[in-house]
């Protein structure tokens, strides 16, 4: 079985941003990532690199910013009331956190400045503008269930739980 649309693929990955040091790794968490292919659940450049691969394939792929988190946008900041953050008292300038938005759902942001009632954040993803290198090992491929296709994401181990 090969990776294609509406298959759930599980894979380990290590990603670096050109600085040589990994910025994220599924191996550190011990579980592979599981995603439903063809539904925009991972960055486009990585999803394209997975297509046609099989269990046991191990490869490296370099993904340019346009196929990852996009180019950095100057002055792409917003002032957000503290009530929209989980545990705002723990945040410090330079930290990454998730901000839940109405339009785009969860969004990774970087804290710039903390005021008494608001937090200024950079809306660029922390990896925006960076060329990413992924070391990938495919561990499993299976047909997606009708429910997974309807929900547009993988369920179960390594995927999303409801």
UniProtKB/TrEMBL annotation:
Its main location: cytoplasm. Its EC number is 5.2.1.8. Pfam families: FKBP_C. Residues 6-81 form the PPIase FKBP-type domain. Keywords: Chaperone, Cytoplasm, Isomerase, Rotamase. PROSITE patterns: FKBP_PPIASE. It comes from the Bacteria. Coiled coil: none annotated. It catalyses: [protein]-peptidylproline (omega=180) = [protein]-peptidylproline (omega=0). GO terms for molecular function: peptidyl-prolyl cis-trans isomerase activity. It is an enzyme of class 5 (isomerase). It is found in: Cytoplasm. This is Peptidyl-prolyl cis-trans isomerase. It comes from Dokdonella fugitiva.
């Amino acid at each position: 079985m090969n990776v294609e649309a509406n298959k759930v693929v599980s894979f380990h990955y290590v990603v670096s941003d050109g600085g040589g040091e990994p910025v994220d790794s599924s191996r550190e968490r011990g579980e592979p990532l599981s995603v439903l292919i063809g539904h925009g659940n991972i960055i486009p450049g990585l999803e394209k690199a997975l297509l046609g691969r099989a269990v046991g394939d191990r490869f490296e792929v370099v993904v340019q910013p346009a196929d990852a988190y996009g180019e950095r946008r100057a002055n792409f900041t917003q002032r957000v009331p503290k009530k929209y953050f989980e545990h705002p008292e723990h945040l410090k300038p330079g930290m990454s956190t998730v901000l839940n938005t109405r339009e785009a759902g969860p969004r990774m942001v970087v804290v710039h400045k903390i005021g008494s009632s608001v937090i200024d954040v950079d809306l660029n993803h922390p990896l925006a503008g960076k060329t990413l290198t992924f070391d990938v090992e495919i561990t499993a491929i299976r047909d997606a269930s009708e429910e997974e296709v309807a929900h547009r994401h993988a369920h179960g181990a390594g995927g999303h739980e409801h």
